[in-house]
Amino acid sequence: MKAAVMVRVKPEVLDPQGDAVRRALEKLGFEGVRGVRVGKLIEIEIEGDADPTLKARLEKMADAMLANPVIEDFEVKLGA
Amino acid sequence: MKAAVMVRVKPEVLDPQGDAVRRALEKLGFEGVRGVRVGKLIEIEIEGDADPTLKARLEKMADAMLANPVIEDFEVKLGA
């Protein structure tokens, strides 16, 4: 089945990439952009059913490798 | 309001980063992972109401700067 892990920079951590995107959008003439945060969207095709066990496995993967828990939060969605 | 732009490598385009993640997960002992694709999750705080005009503005931003339309698809979600 399909699953998605969304990785976001923690709110209290600076995101220079997001700031650069915001400034670039402004320079291109796009107005009204107050803030931009750039995260990762990791889509996984994995064996198993949409149950708590699978979700727990994906959370372990995210914690161990997909995200850096010091500066990033992650969210796992099944069937995404 | 908040909006999200999800940027994914097109299905017909190779994703070496995703393949590297899949192999690394396997090496770490995570089984059953058939495929991994790594995309971007761009979250934007923008002035305006959740209407088709705002969605069109965000789609222009995505097409002009956030995604590379040659190799990537994007999806805009309002209020995400």
Q: Which oligomeric form is depicted? A: homodimer
| First-residue to last-residue Cα separation of chain A | 9 Å
- Placed side by side, the strands forming the largest sheet of chain A appear as 2-1-3
Q: Tell me about the biggest sheet of chain A?
A: 3 strands, antiparallel
Q: What is the gyration radius of chain A calculated from CA atoms?
A: 16 Å
Q: Given the C-alpha coordinates, what overall shape of chain A results?
A: elongated
Largest interface: A-B, 33 and 33 residues
Task: Please name the CATH architecture of chain A.
Answer: 2-Layer Sandwich
What share of the residues of chain A lie within helices?
Answer: 25-40%
Q: What is the helix/strand order of chain A?
A: EHEHE
